């Protein structure tokens, strides 16, 4: 009798949970006071093409198991990718011995049982069992390439195009009774092109998307067209004189500024005292119109979940409300250090103790279009690409290499490259003005943002 994919996945999940239960029982018998076991299984396939030829075909199927044990206030984490009984016996023995030798950690423990997810299971629609063959992925990649080259410019050539998917199954069991898991999928496609001017100067740019369901992927020809147009638009870039001017960060890269903010409110950084925002809880950091929200319950969201990697139930949280910083991002350990409960932001690999991470963070859209912001500013830089960011975590001083476009009289005048943008993030946040072009595409999303009077370094 043939089994459906869902029946097969259910059988695999049951087998995973039984293995984890046996492992926790063995850990307790070996001397662990508490333990947590995680099992992850992944299968993926991707195809890359270049100039009409297949360049890469990558298929991967992995299974890994991680065990965290506690002996008093000591902890250790170990992982394996082979699951025979002798291997798992050695895993348990090694973990308990390692924990016994570890230094005391007063903040090491499983999550507070009162905070654990207990249901109901709200449908988040994170899994699509669509099967895409290597041949179909190859065709998608070729069509992306063809869509870009259809721009018809002799200055253009393909750099790479790819398509693929990943399907994951993750299960966790703890000795205090938490049991949970999730199954997710990710489908992706991208294209990158090289444009060359008569003098031989080359510019690269691209476009890509990742989604939970295959049907949500954009048209492949459109992906190619956008990527090619971006590369062509960057030709003829000029240098800029160093100056202070208005900078608009395009919505493709403005999220990097929000990521710097998220790193600075991580409970781990706050507990270490290594954050430029460590004294800013409850302070007005942004304009009162600015809202930043983390929503782990977004349907089909790339960072969505019902509980974090310690089993703590998650909820939608305003991180910035009317411009005010409302709290820190906390896992169990960071929360204990700061005398606060976990906020459901634990994130872990199988071979390490939990760190801190967000889910689906969004900087809310403003009311003005980019054209309107450019008209009001008159002149400045639109940054469309950044690289090599540098941050002083204690002061908030920030800089990054960048390229993009110079605008004057409210309209784009010409592309620019080899510039540096710099400022202090506390001052930058205070002057940040969001545009109305927010697109939900990833785990951190933001509209384009305007910031006045930034230092732009050039020739």
Question: How would you describe what is shown here?
Answer:
- The protein has 9 helices and 19 strands.
- The chain has helices at residues 5-29, 85-101, 134-149, 220-233, 255-264, 267-272, 332-338, 370-377, 425-431, and strands spanning 34-50, 53-71, 74-80, 156-174, 179-196, 202-211, 243-249, 292-294, 317-321, 324-325, 346-347, 355-356, 361-363, 380-391, 397-408, 411-424, 433-434, 444-445, 449-457.
- It is 24% helix and 36% strand.
- The protein starts with a helix and ends with a strand.
- It is globular, with a radius of gyration of 25 Å.
- The strands form 4 sheets. It has a 6-stranded antiparallel β-sheet with strand order 3-2-1-4-5-6. The protein has a 5-stranded mixed β-barrel with strand order 7-14-15-16-19. A 5-stranded mixed β-sheet has the order 10-9-8-13-18, covered by helices on one side.
- The chain is an alpha+beta fold.
- It has 2 domains: 5-228, PmbA/TldD superfamily (PmbA/TldD fold); 237-459, no CATH class.
- Residues 1-5 have low confidence and may be disordered.
Task: Summarize the structure in short.
With 459 residues, the chain is an alpha+beta fold. The chain contains nine helices and 19 strands.
List the helices and strands and how they pair.
Layout: H1 5-29, E1 34-50, E2 53-71, E3 74-80, H2 85-101, H3 134-149, E4 156-174, E5 179-196, E6 202-211, H4 220-233, E7 243-249, H5 255-264, H6 267-272, E8 292-294, E9 317-321, E10 324-325, H7 332-338, E11 346-347, E12 355-356, E13 361-363, H8 370-377, E14 380-391, E15 397-408, E16 411-424, H9 425-431, E17 433-434, E18 444-445, E19 449-457
Helix pairs in contact: 3-4
């Amino acid at each position: 009798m043939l089994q459906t994919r869902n029946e097969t996945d259910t059988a695999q999940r049951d087998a995973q949970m039984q293995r984890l239960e046996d492992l926790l029982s063995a850990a307790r018998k070996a001397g662990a006071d508490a333990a947590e076991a995680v099992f992850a299984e992944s299968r993926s396939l991707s195809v890359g093409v270049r100039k009409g030829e297949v360049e890469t075909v990558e298929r991967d199927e992995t299974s890994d198991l991680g065990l965290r044990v506690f002996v008093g206030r000591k902890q250790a984490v170990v992982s394996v990718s082979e699951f025979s009984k002798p291997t798992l016996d050695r895993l348990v023995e090694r973990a308990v011995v390692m924990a016994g030798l570890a230094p005391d950690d007063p903040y090491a423990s499983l999550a507070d049982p009162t905070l654990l997810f207990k249901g109901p299971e709200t449908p988040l629609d994170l899994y699509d069992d669509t099967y895409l063959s290597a041949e179909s992925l190859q065709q998608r990649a070729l069509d992306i390439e063809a869509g870009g080259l259809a721009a018809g410019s002799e200055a253009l050539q393909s750099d790479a195009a790819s398509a693929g998917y990943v399907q994951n199954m993750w299960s966790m069991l703890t000795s205090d009774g938490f049991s949970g898991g999730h199954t997710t999928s990710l489908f992706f496609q991208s294209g990158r092109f090289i444009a060359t001017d008569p003098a031989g100067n080359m510019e690269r740019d691209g476009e890509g998307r990742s989604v939970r369901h295959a049907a949500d992927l954009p048209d492949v020809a459109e992906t190619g067209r956008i990527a090619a147009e971006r590369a062509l638009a960057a030709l003829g870039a000029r240098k800029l004189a160093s100056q202070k001017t208005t900078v608009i960060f395009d919505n493709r890269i403005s999220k990097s500024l929000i990521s710097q903010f998220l790193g600075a409110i991580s409970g781990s950084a706050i507990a270490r005292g290594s954050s430029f925002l460590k004294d800013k809880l409850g302070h007005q950091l942004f304009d009162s119109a600015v809202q930043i929200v983390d929503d782990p319950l977004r349907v089909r969201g790339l960072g969505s979940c019902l509980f974090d990697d310690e089993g703590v139930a998650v909820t939608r949280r305003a991180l910035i409300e009317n411009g005010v910083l409302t709290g820190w991002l906390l896992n169990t350990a960071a929360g204990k250090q700061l005398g606060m409960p976990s906020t459901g932001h634990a994130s872990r690999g199988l071979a390490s103790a939990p760190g801190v991470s967000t889910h689906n963070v969004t900087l809310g859209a403003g009311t003005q279009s980019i054209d309107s912001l450019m008209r009001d500013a008159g002149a400045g830089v639109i940054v469309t690409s950044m690289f090599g960011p540098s941050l002083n975590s204690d002061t908030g001083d920030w800089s990054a290499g960048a390229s993009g476009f110079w605008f004057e009289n409210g309209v784009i005048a010409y592309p620019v490259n080899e510039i540096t943008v710099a400022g202090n993030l506390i001052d930058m946040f205070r002057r940040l003005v969001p545009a109305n072009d927010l697109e939900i595409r990833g785990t951190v999303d933001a509209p384009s943002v305007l910031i006045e009077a930034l230092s732009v370094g050039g020739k």
